[in-house]
Amino acid sequence: MNAAIREEFFRRLKAQNPHPTTELDYSSPFELLVAVLLSAQATDKGVNKATARLFPVANTPQAILALGEEPLAEFIKTIGLFRTKAANLIKTCRILVETHGGEVPTTREALEQLPGVGRKTANVILNTAFGQPTLAVDTHIFRLANRTRLAPGKNVREVEDRLLRLIPRAYLKDAHHWLILHGRYICTARSPKCAECLVCDLCEARDKTGECSPEIIGRYTGPQAETP
Asked: Given a cut of 70, is residue 227 above it in pLDDT?
């Protein structure tokens, strides 16, 4: 996939969804951090149900510490690995209070010092909460980057580095959400919905499941745009 095609790829994604965001419900950087920590091996829908119960009771590090680990576990018990997540969240809240004045840090190094926070989680927080041009390569982005040949790589870090290098800078801040949503709902692992894909004609996948739809593609190309 060359530079002109990559530019058109993201131009169309932006035309379809100018202001993409996470599907996790949150109203502060700390709530986002909690939601992302809970989302490992869980669906966004399941996390949102749990945080809808938790956040009205405790939505700051201080409040969660006051709540305690066992009561916290009760709020999130519908989520996989809830006891481990509750323990990590209590430890994280203690560090936030004692080291960061109760605020979520804005650097990767500080975020990755928090229990349960790895590179992917840190990237989500930096991008979604603080608007930094980072990419959290999850299973959806890894699959899409390799399948479409947008930025093929053998592992998550290789794909991340290539995406950061190859995505046009004007689209970099929102690319994380565009790619996750496209991988989650269109470029799915099984039976990708190629006939519903607005970038089908730009994709180099060998396992396309149908013909590209000129009608759908036409909605996002416009009369002046040409496919590279």
From this structure: no
How much is the mean pLDDT over the chain? Answer: 92
Tell me what pLDDT residue 226 has.
45
Res 224 pLDDT > 60 = no
Taking the C-alpha atoms of residue 167 and residue 158, their distance in angstroms, rounded to an integer, is: 14
Q: Which of 14, 49, 91, 120 is an active site residue?
A: 120
pLDDT for res 222 = 63
45 is catalytic: no
Other Cβ atoms closer than 10 A to 221:
17
Please say if 14 is a catalytic residue.
Answer: no
Which option is the CATH number for 29-129: 3.40.50.150, 3.20.20.150, 1.10.340.30, 3.20.20.370?
A: 1.10.340.30
Instruction: Say if CB 173 and CB 131 are below 8 A apart.
Output: yes
